[in-house]
């Protein structure tokens, strides 16, 4: 088998530029984990550089049967570590602590990040390629148009850095947009504690009506105007709140609900 045919329904765009793959693999520190899980390795362009790093053991998860056959033929050193599965449906507990890496399919990249958040205790580091505007969203600062739900949720648990931009022509087939590479390192202590499900819900509810003030977008929580501290938030829009301020807002709502 010489090559794998890219499949549109899987969102496959195979990377051809070896220097990009090398830079992504080299961005991983290898600290605090013994395994790396690559999502959607395709023909192993990134995999080959991960395998060179002896600080960790490389595993891959691939849903495309043609790619799985290619990997088994060309990467015998991966024997027993090629998982033919859907990452979004996988039980990750057997992996223990691991880093996440990949040229992620753009159509499920946000879902991959939500799953990473669900398992942040297992995943101390992530390096990956996304659609450029999505990558910018993850690392965005308050006040920018890119700043949104995943900016706040990811940055509450990880330090996010936008590394570099990748042009369209280095892929087969070339996507219609540029790509961006992100690196995330888990914080020693998350910025948020407590009911994490409620925190996620508060952030989503606020940004789902991002043009409205928080007084209007968070009406569902029934916060009285005279609640101490609420006045500082009520007149603001969500993009005006830094991640620590979002945590303060969540703590206010959490305390009010408990009371």
What does this structure look like?
By secondary structure, the chain is α/β, with parallel strands linked by helices. The protein folds into two domains: 8-186, 3-Layer(aba) Sandwich (Rossmann fold), CATH 3.40.50; 196-258, Helicase, Ruva Protein, domain 3 (Orthogonal Bundle), CATH 1.10.8.100. It has ten helices and nine strands. A seven-stranded mixed sheet has the order 4-3-2-5-6-9-7. A two-stranded antiparallel sheet has the order 1-8. Strand 5, helix 4 and strand 6 form a beta-alpha-beta unit. The longest helix has 16 residues, at 243-258. The chain starts with 13 loop residues before the first strand and ends with a helix.
Walk me through the topology:
Elements: E1 14-15, H1 18-26, E2 35-39, H2 47-50, E3 57-61, H3 65-74, E4 82-83, E5 98-103, H4 109-118, E6 125-131, H5 132-138, H6 149-157, E7 158-166, E8 171-172, E9 179-186, H7 196-208, H8 214-217, H9 231-234, H10 243-258
Helix pairs in contact: 4-6, 6-10, 7-10
Question: In summary, what is this structure?
Answer:
The chain has 259 residues and is an alpha/beta fold. The chain has 10 helices and 9 strands.
Tally of helical segments: 10
Q: Please bin the fraction of helical residues.
A: 25-40%
String of helices and strands? EHEHEHEEHEHHEEEHHHH
Total strands: the figure is 9
Given helix and strand content, the structural type is: alpha/beta
Low-confidence stretches: none
Largest sheet: 7 strands, mixed
Beta-strand proportion:
15-25%
Sheet with the most strands: spatial strand order: 4-3-2-5-6-9-7
Indicate the mean pLDDT: 94
């Amino acid at each position: 088998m010489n090559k794998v045919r890219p499949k549109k329904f899987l969102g496959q765009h195979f990377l051809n530029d070896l220097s990009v793959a090398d830079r992504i693999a080299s961005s991983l520190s290898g600290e605090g984990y013994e395994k790396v899980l690559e999502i959607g390795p395709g023909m192993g362009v990134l995999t080959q550089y991960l395998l060179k790093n002896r600080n960790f053991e490389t595993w891959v998860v691939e849903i495309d049967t043609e790619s799985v056959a290619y990997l088994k033929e060309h990467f015998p050193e991966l024997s027993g570590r090629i998982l033919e599965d859907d990452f979004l449906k996988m039980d990750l507990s057997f992996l223990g602590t691991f880093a996440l890496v990949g040229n992620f399919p753009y159509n499920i990249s946000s879902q991959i990040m939500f799953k990473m958040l669900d398992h942040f205790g297992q995943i101390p580091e992530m390096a990956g390629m996304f659609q450029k505007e999505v990558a910018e969203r993850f690392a965005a600062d308050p006040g920018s148009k890119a700043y949104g739900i995943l900016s706040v949720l990811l940055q509450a648990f990880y330090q996010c850095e936008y590394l570099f931009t990748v042009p369209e022509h280095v892929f087969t087939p070339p996507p219609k947009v540029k790509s961006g590479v992100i690196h995330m390192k888990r914080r020693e202590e998350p910025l948020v504690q407590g009911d994490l499900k409620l925190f996620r819900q508060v952030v989503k509810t606020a940004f789902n009506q991002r043009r409205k003030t928080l007084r209007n977008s968070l009406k569902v929580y029934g916060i009285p105007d005279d609640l101490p501290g609420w006045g500082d938030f009520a007149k603001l829009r969500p993009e005006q709140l830094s991640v620590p301020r979002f945590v303060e807002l969540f703590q206010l709502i959490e305390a009010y609900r408990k009371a």
